[in-house]
Write a structure and sequence with these properties.
The complex is a heterodimer of chains A (294) and B (245).
Chain A: E1 2-13, E2 16-27, E3 31-35, H1 42-49, E4 57-62, H2 67-72, E5 76-79, H3 91-99, H4 108-114, H5 130-142, E6 148-152, H6 160-174, E7 179-184, H7 187-193, E8 196-201, E9 204-209, H8 211-217, E10 221-226, E11 241-247, E12 250-255, H9 258-268, E13 274-280, H10 283-293
Parallel strand pairs in A: 3-7, 3-8, 5-6, 6-7
Antiparallel strand pairs in A: 1-2, 1-4, 8-9, 10-12, 10-13, 11-12
Chain B: H1 2-13, H2 16-37, H3 49-68, H4 71-80, H5 82-87, H6 93-123, H7 129-141, H8 144-156, H9 159-176, H10 188-194, H11 198-210, H12 217-242
Helix pairs in contact in B: 1-6, 2-3, 2-6, 3-6, 3-8, 3-9, 3-11, 4-8, 4-9, 6-7, 6-8, 7-11, 8-9, 8-12, 11-12
Classes of the chains: A alpha/beta (294), B mainly alpha (245).
């Protein structure tokens, strides 16, 4: 059964098309990263999943139901980008209040443990640091024991150490067969924490698969060398070449067949080639290539 | 929802501003004024100063509590993202505004009861039991328009504007209602404004009950009309503030 299904979903704000015919299915139990640059439509898509925004057209289903119904039934928990706490309430009071709003909440102690808040339980919200507040917001997202957890750039305000702990906690929660969808523009986060990466740009899915598949699917590798003042014309015609970029005096050729491209460089051109380097594609390259083309 | 009300009460009782304006001010001023004028009797109502001031200060405290517990906290919750946090839980949208109204009504009680208690203990004010019940119930129910006004302000304005507007509204209504000095001392223009405010009707109903009279129909109708109008405004403003785009 699908936890999430977008069918040809469009969201328009006046003249701006934030989400443009989005089709996406996520089976229950998966951990999926929604990767894209700022303004790609990630937050808009998550807000529509929560019923906070309505699509201009198309249909969204969460466990086969309308988003509002799924929210009312306590199926979804979410950590949105913004969200202050009530300053006068303690961590435990806040978490306990929210968990009681759900029909099948987790026990308070378990929530506090999942979010590393056991020691901060009695602290008032106005005395928490930014990173501690983020942990409370994670606690609020999981408090109801939701089957679907949505996280919108959850580690944005965290340092490296907090980030690692956060993802460990997220995995612990996911381990119970729950579905997780998180938006991020950090490639490593998507690579390390998701089984599947959905890349979106300008409101559309531009790639969808495991991190490895996405890397493999784009441009493969690249070779670069110092070109200096020599002409760049004709390089795009070399075998295997899919793209040519010139930056400073250095030219980069993207290629699907590294050997053929390099061989042709030496045999079929008269260029003076210096400082030749070969680059394997990483997810960053794949991401840039994908979001640029879109 | 019961737990939600509890949480709302808890946070306001920890809020220093609430405690100062709503609990300390009315009780403190009652003690001060009743020592000065408690023994005199008021010509317009025929009430002893200690009783008149009890109603005035209780009315001020109740009005302040109703507006302080609604306008700014609610506006802040909308802007800080707390409202969104609640909107993505199974809590139905209407439960939020109903809880706000109910909590505000409960938070009015400390100032009503404490001013009454101060009057009994320091000025030996005594009323027949039924009259006490009537007075407290009328003054309690009469805060609905002010709580609704506070919620409307909180729904319509961002926190930095809601704050001064709520303050000015609160003190303005207290002043015009004749809670701080008698309406008979006001200049003519101010008097005519005062007569159409809900706080004026509210205070008059209180004084009438304290004097052993039935509330005058005109005053009761005035506060009822304000109540209906402001609750309607609060509901419309709430819908507008929480609408899903």
């Amino acid at each position: 059964m699908n936890a999430i299904a977008f069918t040809d979903v469009t969201k328009r704000y006046g003249d701006v098309l934030a989400v443009d015919g989005l089709d996406l299915e996520i089976p229950a139990g998966a951990t999926v990263a929604l990767l894209g640059p700022n303004g790609a439509g990630k937050s808009t898509s998550l807000n529509m999943l929560l019923g906070l925004l309505r699509p201009s057209s198309g249909e969204i289903r969460v466990f086969g139901e309308a988003p509002e119904t799924a929210v009312a039934n306590g199926e979804i928990g979410a950590m949105l980008q913004e969200g202050a706490l009530i300053p006068e309430l303690t961590v435990a009071e806040t978490v306990d209040f929210v968990r009681r709003l759900y029909p099948r909440p987790l026990p308070l102690e378990e929530i506090l443990r999942l979010a590393d808040l056991t020691e901060l339980a009695r602290r008032r919200a106005d005395r928490l640091s930014g990173g501690q507040t983020q942990r409370v917001r994670f606690a609020l997202a999981v408090a109801g024991g939701p089957r679907l957890l949505l996280l919108d750039e959850p580690t944005a305000a965290m340092d490296v150490e907090s980030r690692r702990t956060f993802w460990d906690n997220m995995r612990a929660y996911a381990a119970g067969g729950r579905t997780i969808l998180f938006a991020t523009h950090y490639l490593e986060e998507a690579d390390e924490n998701a089984d599947r990466v959905v890349v979106i740009a300008r409101g559309r899915v531009v790639a969808d698969g495991s991190a490895a598949e996405i890397k493999a699917g784009v441009a493969g590798q690249a070779v670069s060398f110092l070109l200096g003042d020599q002409p760049v014309a004709g390089l795009d015609a070399l075998p295997g070449t899919t793209g040519v970029e010139l930056q400073g005096g250095r030219v980069t050729l993207r290629t699907t067949d590294l050997d053929a491209t390099v061989a042709a460089l030496y045999r079929k051109t008269t260029l003076d080639i210096r400082d030749l380097q070969v680059h394997g594609a990483d997810l960053e390259d794949a991401f840039l290539a994908l979001t640029k083309e879109a | 929802m019961r737990h939600y009300i509890k949480v709302e009460m808890l946070r306001m009782l920890r809020n220093k501003r609430y405690i100062i304006f709503v609990v300390a001010f009315p009780v403190g001023f009652y003690l001060l004024y009743s020592n000065l004028w408690g023994a005199e009797s008021d010509q317009a109502t025929g009430l002893r100063g200690s009783v008149l001031l009890m109603v005035s200060m209780a009315a001020y405290g109740a009005l302040a509590a109703a507006m302080m517990s609604t306008a700014v906290p609610w506006s802040q919750e909308r802007h800080s993202g707390w409202l969104r946090q609640l909107q993505i839980t199974p809590l139905p949208g209407r439960a939020i505004i109903l809880t706000k109204l109910a909590s505000s009504m409960l938070l009015v009680l400390p100032s009503l009861l404490l001013v009454g208690l101060a009057a009994v203990l320091t000025q030996h004010v005594s009323l027949p039991p039924l009259q006490w019940v009537e007075l407290i119930l009328a003054m309690w129910a009469g805060t609905i328009p002010f709580a609704a006004l506070g919620l409307a302000i909180g729904s319509l304005l961002p926190p930095d504007t809601a704050q001064p507007v709520a303050m000015i509204g609160m003190f303005g209504l207290a002043l015009l209602g004749g809670l701080w000095f008698p309406e008979s001392m006001m200049p003519a223009a101010m008097k005519s404004i005062a007569h159409v405010t809900p706080s004026y009707d509210y205070a008059r109903v209180g004084w009438q009950i304290a004097a052993g009279e039935a509330p005058h129909a005109a005053d009761a109708a005035g506060i009822l009309a304000w109540g209906v109008a402001l609750v309607a405004l609060a509901l419309v403003a709430y819908r507008r503030a929480t609408v899903r785009a």
